[in-house]
């Protein structure tokens, strides 16, 4: 009954670390002490601990340990097959086809990782060089104290928005005032009005307002609404700017002239002089 109960284990997978006796002798010789090892047993392969999986059995016979052939072979990198006709356990150290495919994929992945790391290093060097260049440029061209930061650019500047299109085309300095010329198109059904009297600008850290102009008439065209798809050209006025002014943050106020009376502020960062 004992041999019948464990026939598959003894026939297919058990191999001893020290195979002193054949399995038949265990059943026929009464002097052998045969003990099953209970609980979770572990082995150490090249310093790495491996626990015997659930479903495998280990037993002791005369102080010798017997373990499944498949468990030992797989931990040592071999494959195990059972040949029924010859009653043979075949252990092969040569890699299986699946193992070869996995090894090839592993090498490809490792190559890809190395290539990506090289690209990352190149990009990081470019970023560092760009930061260094920008830092040097900032040191050469320090910002004006009190002037808001921004991407200041030379005129003309154009802004295309869902509600309107607007362009700041040029700046003309007179004897007592400054004119800034605009082109405006309304893209909404709601009437649009430029509140030109509320125009302000911060120039090199100092604020200038259209409201500070007392003795000169403003552009009369902006007192009227722009209808849907209507375009209009005109100018806004500011006090005379100091000679050599470098940067202007122009702020324009717009009114959607319906019941809601919603207003909107639009800014332009203008570089005046190099």
Quick structural summary:
The chain is 25% helix and 35% strand.
Kindly describe this structure:
Strands 12, 13, 14, 16 and 17 form a 5-stranded antiparallel sheet that branches. Mean pLDDT is 81; it is low at 1-30. The protein has helices at residues 2-5, 7-13, 23-28, 69-75, 97-140, and strands at 14-16, 34-36, 42-45, 48-51, 59-61, 64-68, 79-83, 88-92, 157-160, 164-173, 177-186, 192-194, 200-203, 206-209, 231-239, 247-256, 262-271. It starts with a helix and ends with a strand. The chain has 5 helices and 17 strands. It has 274 residues and is an alpha+beta fold. The chain has 2 domains: 2-92, no CATH class; 157-271, Sandwich (Immunoglobulin-like).
What characterizes the major β-sheet?
A: 5 strands, antiparallel
Shape type: rod-shaped
Proportion of strand residues? 35-45%
Question: Under the CATH scheme, which architecture of the largest domain would be assigned?
Answer: Sandwich
Q: How many E-type strands?
A: 17
Computed Rg: 44 Å
* Oligomer kind: single chain
Report the end-to-end length measured between terminal Cα atoms. 102 Å
Poorly predicted spans? 1-30
H/E element order: HHEHEEEEEHEEHEEEEEEEEE
CATH topology label of the largest domain: Immunoglobulin-like
Class of the largest domain, according to the CATH hierarchy? Answer: Mainly Beta
Query: What's the helix count?
Result: 5
């Amino acid at each position: 009954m004992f041999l019948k109960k464990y026939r598959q284990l003894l026939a297919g997978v058990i191999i001893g670390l020290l195979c002193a006796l054949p399995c038949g002798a265990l059943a026929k010789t009464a002097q052998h002490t045969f003990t099953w090892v209970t609980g979770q047993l572990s082995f150490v392969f090249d310093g790495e601990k491996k626990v015997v999986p659930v479903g495998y059995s280990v037993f002791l016979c005369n102080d010798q340990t017997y373990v499944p052939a498949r468990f030992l072979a797989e931990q040592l990198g071999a494959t195990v097959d059972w040949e029924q006709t010859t009653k043979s356990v075949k252990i092969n150290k040569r890699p299986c086809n699946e193992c070869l495919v996995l090894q090839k994929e592993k090498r490809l992945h490792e190559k890809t990782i190395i290539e990506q790391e090289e690209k990352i290093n190149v990009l990081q060097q470019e970023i560092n060089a760009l930061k260094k260049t920008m830092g040097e440029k900032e040191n050469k061209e320090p910002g004006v104290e009190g002037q808001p930061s921004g991407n200041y650019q030379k005129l003309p500047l154009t802004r295309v928005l869902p509600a309107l299109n607007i362009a700041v085309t040029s700046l003309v300095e007179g004897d007592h005032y400054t004119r800034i010329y605009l082109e405006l198109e309304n893209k909404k059904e709601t009437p649009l009005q430029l509140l030109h009297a509320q125009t302000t600008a911060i120039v090199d850290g100092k604020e200038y307002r259209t409201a500070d102009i007392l003795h000169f008439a403003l552009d009369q065209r902006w007192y009227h609404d722009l209808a849907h798809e209507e375009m209009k050209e005109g100018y806004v006025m500011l006090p005379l700017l100091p000679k050599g002014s470098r940067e202007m943050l122009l702020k324009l106020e717009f009114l959607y002239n319906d019941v809601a009376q919603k207003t909107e502020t639009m800014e332009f960062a203008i570089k005046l002089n190099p």
